[in-house]
Write a structure and sequence with these properties.
13 helices; alpha+beta; 2 domains; globular; 24 strands
């Protein structure tokens, strides 16, 4: 049998050298929620900064996206680089762990969600809709969103993941099986999380037997994927990994790697550079701790009447006036056969919108909104909001705003749908509520 590293390499997978904070660092201050959350809530991020103060924290090493349009972007990136260098030089980390981290995360909504932290090979990933690689995007990637993220990752001394990648393992043997092995040992870390986000514990898996178990089960999942999907095209690889959260972050990592590889093409060791890989958390789509939640739309510079008319004219929508947000939410969750429904929320009222069809709700809506925004880009804009209540509150906060609530999303056919048709429209779903998103905690040296 081939050495385990070769077997894993054939599966787009690599055992990383993971950096974890030493025992003198308070993990509750260290771990910080994903940067693409609470993008309309400066008070949230300012409150975190005030709470953490000068203590060691990932907050100083990430770029919350609420600040992406601020004029001090270059200075902020410089401060992030300096904080990463300080973390390395100040011995924040224990010696690197050559292995996997098995994780159990508790949230306000679920008592346990399981995951494995390791690295994936960016050579085996491509986000373009026509591509069929081993690692695939589940949602459309917007190239215009990549440049600021590339600036942040380019030459960064460290990376820490908020990317969650899914596997299709109905037998529940890979993540869950490694979890059983891991929990025969004490956890390497265990902490409550800030912002009442629950708690997280992590166990180290670093034996050759652990790595063999990982390779055995990934090979099993590849065989399953071939049986599930057939041969879509001669160039298609088995669909092993689906990006569940962080599509744009993984696309950013890919862009930075391709850029660096091109600039160092004559370096014989270039294909071993750490930037070829991305640190991610891998989860089983069948884990009970994973819910697929809709990502709602918040439109600026428009009115309820304008959006209602747009949907009537372009999507043949039927519109019903609703008097209470809880009733609107309940109607959306109940659904209706052969119908796609949306909820409109503004200071001018509430509406339940119904259009004929069975597609995922973003399929007819997103292209229409893209065209609508492009007609008046100087006055209209859009944001993507996690959570029903947050969307309602933001939509009602000011005039000339309209929130569009989307219905629940099923997860059962994700691999079949993406495998057959390619990525879904961008921001089609989110794995859980905003507060359930991944926290930055584990790190890896990137550009050294």
């Amino acid at each position: 049998m081939k050495p385990v590293d070769e077997r894993l390499a054939a599966l787009g997978t690599k055992i990383p050298d993971i950096l974890l904070p030493n025992k003198n660092i308070d993990l509750k201050n260290w771990a910080v929620i994903a940067c693409d959350q609470f993008t309309q809530d400066r008070e949230f991020w300012e409150g975190l900064a005030a709470e953490i103060g000068s203590r060691a924290s990932m907050l100083s090493m990430i770029f919350p996206e609420v600040y992406l349009e601020d004029p001090d972007k270059a200075d902020r990136i410089t401060r992030i680089r300096n904080s990463m260098k300080k973390a390395i030089e100040s011995d924040y980390f224990d010696e690197p762990i050559h292995g996997l981290i098995y994780i159990e995360r508790a949230t306000p909504y679920h008592s346990c969600r399981r995951g494995l932290v390791f690295t994936l090979d960016l050579e085996r990933y491509d986000w373009h809709p026509e591509a069929r690689p081993l690692i695939r995007a589940t949602e459309g990637t917007v190239q215009e969103r990549l440049p600021p993220r590339i600036e942040i990752r380019r030459n960064a001394p460290l990376e820490s993941p908020h990317i969650i990648v899914l596997i299709d393992d109905p037998e529940r043997r890979l993540v869950e099986g490694l979890g059983e092995r891991a929990k025969t040992r004490p956890p390497r870390y265990s902490t409550s999380l800030m912002a009442q986000a629950g708690s997280i514990s992590g166990w180290v898996l670093d034996s050759q037997d652990d790595f063999e178990y990982l390779a055995d089960n990934l090979e099993r999942l590849v065989r399953q994927a071939i049986n599930r999907d057939g041969r879509v095209s001669p160039s298609a690889e088995p669909f092993l990994y689906a990006v569940g959260d962080g599509n744009h972050s993984l696309a950013t990592a890919k862009a930075v790697w391709e850029e660096y590889k091109a600039a160092h093409q004559y370096d014989p060791a270039i294909m071993e550079h750490p930037a070829r890989y991305a640190l991610v958390e891998v989860e089983n789509i069948y884990d009970e701790g994973i819910d697929f939640e809709p990502i709602h739309r918040l439109l600026f510079g428009t009115s309820l009447n304008e959006i209602e008319l747009l949907l009537r004219e372009k999507l043949s929508a039927k519109v019903e006036e609703i008097n209470d947000t809880e009733i609107l939410s309940a109607r959306l969750k109940a659904g209706s056969a052969n119908t796609i429904q949306y909820g409109l929320v503004s200071q001018d009222g509430l509406r339940l919108v119904s259009i004929p069809g069975t597609a995922i709700a973003t399929a007819p809506l997103q292209p229409l909104l893209d065209r609508f925004i492009s007609e008046k880009p100087n006055t209209r804009s859009i944001d993507y909001i996690h959570g029903d209540q947050d969307t309602v509150e933001l939509a009602l906060a000011e005039q000339n705003r309209v929130g569009i609530l989307l219905p629940p999303v099923g997860k059962g056919d994700l691999f079949l749908t993406v495998g057959k048709s390619g990525p879904l429209p961008r921001k089609s779903f989110s794995m859980g509520e905003g507060i359930e998103k991944r926290f930055y905690l584990e790190c890896r040296r990137l550009f050294v």
